[in-house]
Design a protein that fits this description.
single chain; about 160 residues; Trna Endonuclease, Chain: A, domain 1; five-stranded mixed sheet; 4 helices; 7 strands; about 35% helix; about 25% strand
Length: about 160
C-alpha cells in the first residue's frame, strides 16, 4: 500500500535527522510522543535530549530549564508518579489533526503536584503515572504565571 510506504519513508527521514537526537519514530504508541517532542521543540525553542535521558525530554535553549514533554491525540496526558520523577517543567500538548499543537499545560511540574494531585488525593496507576484530563490541565495552565512558562518562539 502506497500510503504505508510513504509513512515508513517519512519515519525513516525523521529518524535520520541528527537534530532529533536519534528518536526512533517507531510505528507504535511511541510515535505520538516522538512527534509531539519534535513539534514542541520547534514551537518552544527546545533542544531535545537523548531519548534515554532521565525525567526530562528537552532543555529550553534560552534559559536552560529542563522540560518533560507529553503529547497526545486523546485530550489527556500522563504525569509521572513519585517525588524523584517530578520534572522541573512540564509541557503537555494535544496534537491536532492538521499538525498544529494545542497547549494543555506549561509550567513547573511541582505546580501540578501541589495544586492538583495532592489536593485531590489522586490515585496513581501502578506507581508509574497519573492520567490528567485536558480540562484539568487547561484549568491549571491558566493559574501558572507567565514568567513560569516555557516561551513560544515560533507561531
Amino acid at each position: 500500500m502506497q500510503e504505508i510506504q510513504q509513512l515508513l519513508a517519512i519515519t525513516k527521514q525523521l529518524r535520520d535527522n541528527p537534530k532529533y537526537q536519534g528518536r526512533k519514530f517507531s510505528l507504535d504508541g511511541k510515535l505520538v510522543g516522538d512527534i509531539g517532542e519534535v513539534l514542541a521543540a520547534e514551537k518552544y525553542g527546545l533542544e531535545l535530549l537523548s531519548e534515554n535521558a532521565y525525567k526530562h525530554d528537552a532543555k529550553e535553549i534560552a534559559t536552560g530549564r529542563m522540560v518533560q514533554i507529553k503529547a497526545s491525540f486523546k485530550n489527556n496526558s500522563y504525569f509521572p508518579y513519585g517525588e524523584d520523577k517530578i520534572p522541573d517543567y512540564f509541557l503537555s500538548i494535544n496534537i491536532l489533526e492538521n499538525g498544529d499543537i494545542e497547549e494543555l499545560f506549561n509550567g513547573p511540574g511541582q505546580f501540578i503536584l501541589e495544586h492538583y494531585i495532592n489536593k485531590q488525593g489522586l490515585k496513581h496507576y501502578k506507581e508509574t503515572y497519573y492520567t490528567l484530563s485536558k480540562g484539568v490541565l487547561k484549568k491549571l495552565n491558566v493559574l501558572v504565571q507567565e514568567e513560569e512558562k516555557i516561551k513560544i518562539v515560533k507561531l
